[in-house]
């Protein structure tokens, strides 16, 4: 037990000793933690005891140290007292010497101060001299800069500005006046930039002034390449002046060989670009140039008043546009970065739209084919001239197609007037050729030979009238005028052929057709008679036969030789259509004349007996038809046959219509006999008609219906009629029961009239009345049965 307590005491002492050592060596920051640990262990009494022991130990050590050094301290103190006496003596000596030195140095200090001032003055003078030496070139350069700006010598001014900024001002930047010069340099820069813009403005004004001359030169060069006459690029006043001055071709040669730089001085634009490049304003200058160009372009493209009324104004306008874009192309190719391809393309696109509008308006307002042809050549020249500068000409060439259509339409209108005049003046009588010379001249104009007339002596009659060769010549001239439009166009032979053949077809199928239709129409102001219509029909035949010669002429226009194959014209089919219309008019005219002849008849439907001969009206009609059919010599056989058949059918139909007319209430047997005699006269005519490939039996069939009707009633063959009704071989197979019923009813009514009863025998009349009543009943029964 004692042993354990002893060991615990040793541990505690060791721990406290360590605590005290930590306190000795620490700066006091750990005192709190050390004291806390002591109290925690309940060793406060032991710690205080050990702390007192430690204090006593250090007190002893301090005392021993003081005792050891005390004698030395006393000795040093005595020596310090001794030194104090010497120090006092030295101080007095120093004061005395100081007073002596102060008195002696006052004059030296004055001289030294004067020397220092002189040295400072000399330094200031040298600095002034150096500063002036540095400032003098600045002032001299600045003076020269001001002189250059007053004289507007921009390029030397830029050189001086560069010298001031890079060489001189850096040496005098500490001077306040250098800031003033620096500020003025910025003003000079702005002034130089503004002057360069003014130079640009003058350049653009110069371009606007000479653009038409540049374009005129480009037109002349293009005309020389395309072999186009000079009148398409020179103005009327130029040609008049050349005639007055008797100028030869050297003026045109000079115009063709003229270079753009001879008319336009490009140095201002180059100088302005270089100036702005030096000023680091190239991009800004480029934008400014492009803005100015965009402003100038609408002015150049502006259409002068009444341009479409003057061919010279039209040429000058296109020349001005050409010159403007040639200059722009030259600027783009001779400068770097001023404008690019994109800007040029946008500018030309806007110009193209304006040009398209101008050209389309010129096309729509022009009513002269010759002027439109001249306009086409000028547009071709314009495209050829401006194409070299990269201007897009494809849309403009498309407008030429619109111009071509308008040109062709004007030609069609013009030729329509010519055709109408030719057709109006024609007498529609066969042409008579007096001699061989006149005949050969006609063949040169109208090469169609007619074998039937070749052997005839002079004076010789031709089957067609004078309008045929005239129309043929006009069609040839139309094709030649259409061919002129292809001159100068870079198109194939096929396209040229289409340019000629398509409008030629329109001329035939629409223009000539409409004029012929209008001429032959029933409501036409020119009321053509029957013979004139026949002559027109003959004319169409010979025009149709002449179509191959027109086709050969068009092939020769395109290929230079008739050996080439070409498409056929549509004139033949058109003339067939016209001929068909004229044939209808011939038939109508013939029928009208027949109706006129028949209408003069004043039939006595209640006559007691027939006259024994044909009526006057039918005799007149037959004579008219005989004279008419003699004129059918030159008509096609088919037309002659058809006309004759239709005439006979119309007579037969007209006679039946007269009998069946509702106005005729009653008919006598005498009137029926007279009608039969008239029919017999028609049958005699039909048997004598001499028309090729048309026999009399065919014509007699036209009157067969009426003949069977008359024979049935007059011969009283009723039993045969009823027994063989429906039999194709019946002698009365063409008699319609309705028709015969109507005639029988009218005959029965005629027999009941008092006038006939007065002159006829009553017994016979009663018998006929009874017969007609029986026949009427049978006919009605037959009609009911067949229905």
Automatic annotation (TrEMBL):
Gene3D superfamilies the UniProt entry points to: Dsl1p vesicle tethering complex, Tip20p subunit, domain D (1.20.58.670), Exocyst complex subunit Sec15 C-terminal domain, N-terminal subdomain (1.10.357.30)
Domain Exocyst complex component EXOC6/Sec15 N-terminal residue range list: 50-219
GO cellular component: exocyst; membrane
Domain Exocyst complex subunit EXOC6/Sec15 C-terminal: 395-746
Pfam families: EXOC6_Sec15_N, Sec15_C
InterPro entries membership: EXOC6/Sec15, EXOC6/Sec15_C, EXOC6/Sec15_C_dom1, EXOC6_Sec15_N, EXOC6PINT-1/Sec15/Tip20_C_dom2
Single Gene Ontology BP annotation: Golgi to plasma membrane transport
UniProt keyword Zinc-finger, yes or no: no
Keyword Transport: yes
Coiled coil regions in record: none
Keywords from the UniProt entry: Coiled coil, Exocytosis, Transport
Described purpose of this protein according to its UniProt entry: Component of the exocyst complex involved in the docking of exocytic vesicles with fusion sites on the plasma membrane.
Recorded family membership: Belongs to the SEC15 family.
Annotated protein name in UniProt: Exocyst complex component
């Amino acid at each position: 037990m004692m042993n354990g307590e002893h060991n615990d005491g040793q541990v505690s002492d060791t721990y406290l000793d360590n605590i005290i050592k930590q306190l000795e060596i620490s700066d006091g920051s750990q005192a709190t933690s050390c004291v806390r640990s002591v109290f925690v262990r309940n060793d406060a009494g032991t710690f205080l005891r050990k702390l007192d022991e430690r204090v006593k130990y250090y007190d002893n050590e301090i005392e021993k140290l003081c005792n050891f050094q005390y004698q030395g301290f006393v000795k040093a103190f005595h020596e310090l007292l001794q030194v104090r006496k010497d120090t006092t003596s030295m101080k007095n000596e120093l004061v005395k010497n100081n007073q002596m030195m102060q008195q002696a140095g006052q004059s030296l200090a004055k001289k030294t101060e004067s020397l220092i001032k002189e040295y400072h003055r000399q330094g200031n003078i040298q600095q002034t001299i150096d500063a002036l030496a540095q400032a003098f070139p600045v002032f001299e350069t600045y003076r020269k800069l001001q002189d250059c700006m007053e004289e507007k010598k921009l390029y030397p001014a830029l050189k001086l500005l560069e010298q001031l900024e890079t060489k001189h001002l850096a040496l005098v930047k500490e001077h306040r006046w250098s800031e003033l010069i620096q500020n003025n340099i910025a003003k000079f820069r702005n002034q130089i930039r503004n002057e360069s813009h003014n130079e640009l403005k003058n350049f653009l004004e110069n371009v606007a002034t000479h653009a038409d001359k540049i374009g005129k030169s480009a037109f002349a060069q293009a005309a020389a390449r395309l072999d186009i006459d000079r009148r398409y690029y020179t103005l009327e006043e130029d040609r008049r002046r050349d005639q007055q001055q008797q100028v030869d071709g050297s003026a045109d040669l000079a115009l063709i060989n003229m270079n753009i730089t001879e008319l336009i001085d490009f140095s201002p634009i180059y100088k302005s670009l270089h100036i702005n490049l030096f000023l680091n304003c190239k991009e800004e200058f480029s934008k400014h140039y492009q803005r100015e160009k965009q402003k100038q372009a609408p002015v150049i493209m502006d259409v002068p008043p009444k341009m479409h009324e003057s061919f010279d104004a039209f040429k000058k306008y296109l020349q001005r546009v050409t010159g403007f874009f040639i200059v722009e192309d030259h600027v783009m190719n001779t400068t770097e970065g001023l404008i690019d391809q994109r800007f040029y393309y946008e500018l030309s696109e806007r110009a193209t739209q304006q040009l398209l509008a101008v050209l389309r308006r010129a096309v729509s307002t022009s009513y002269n084919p010759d002027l439109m042809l001249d306009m086409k050549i000028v547009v071709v020249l314009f495209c050829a001239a401006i194409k070299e500068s990269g201007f897009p000409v494809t849309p403009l060439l498309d407008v030429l197609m619109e111009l071509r259509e308008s040109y062709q339409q004007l030609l069609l209108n013009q030729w329509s007037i010519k055709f109408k005049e030719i057709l109006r003046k024609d007498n529609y009588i066969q042409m008579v050729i007096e001699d061989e010379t006149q005949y050969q001249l006609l063949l040169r104009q109208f090469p169609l030979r007619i074998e039937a007339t070749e052997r005839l002596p002079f004076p010789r009659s031709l089957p067609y009238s004078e309008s045929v060769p005239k129309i043929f010549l006009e069609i040839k001239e139309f094709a030649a005028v259409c061919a002129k439009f292809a001159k100068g166009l870079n198109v194939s032979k096929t396209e040229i052929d289409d340019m000629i053949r398509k409008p030629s077809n329109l001329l035939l199928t629409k223009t000539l057709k409409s004029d012929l239709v209008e001429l032959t129409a029933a409501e036409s102001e020119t009321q053509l008679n029957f013979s004139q219509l026949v002559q027109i029909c003959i004319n169409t035949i010979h025009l149709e036969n002449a179509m191959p010669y027109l086709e050969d002429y068009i092939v020769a226009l395109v290929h230079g030789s008739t050996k080439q194959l070409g498409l056929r014209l549509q004139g033949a089919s058109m003339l067939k259509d016209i001929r068909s219309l004229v044939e209808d008019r011939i038939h109508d005219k013939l029928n009208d004349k027949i109706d006129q002849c028949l209408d003069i008849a004043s039939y006595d439907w209640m006559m007691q007996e027939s006259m024994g001969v044909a009526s006057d009206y039918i005799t007149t009609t037959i004579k008219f038809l005989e004279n008419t059919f003699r004129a059918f010599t030159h008509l096609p056989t088919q037309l002659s046959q058809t006309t004759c058949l239709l005439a006979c059918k119309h007579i037969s139909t007209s006679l039946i219509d007269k009998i069946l007319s509702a106005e005729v209430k009653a008919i006598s047997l005498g009137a029926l006999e007279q009608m039969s005699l008239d029919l017999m006269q028609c049958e005699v005519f039909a048997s004598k008609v001499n028309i090729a490939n048309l026999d009399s039996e065919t014509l007699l069939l036209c009157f067969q219906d009426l003949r069977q009707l008359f024979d049935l009633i007059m011969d009283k063959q009723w039993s045969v009629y009823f027994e063989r009704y429906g039999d194709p071989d019946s002698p009365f197979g063409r008699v319609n029961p309705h028709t015969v019923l109507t005639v029988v009813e009218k005959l029965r009514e005629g027999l009941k009239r008092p006038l006939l009863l007065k002159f006829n025998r009553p017994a016979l009349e009663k018998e006929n009345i009874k017969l007609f009543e029986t026949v009427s009943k049978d006919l009605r029964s037959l009609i009911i049965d067949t229905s």
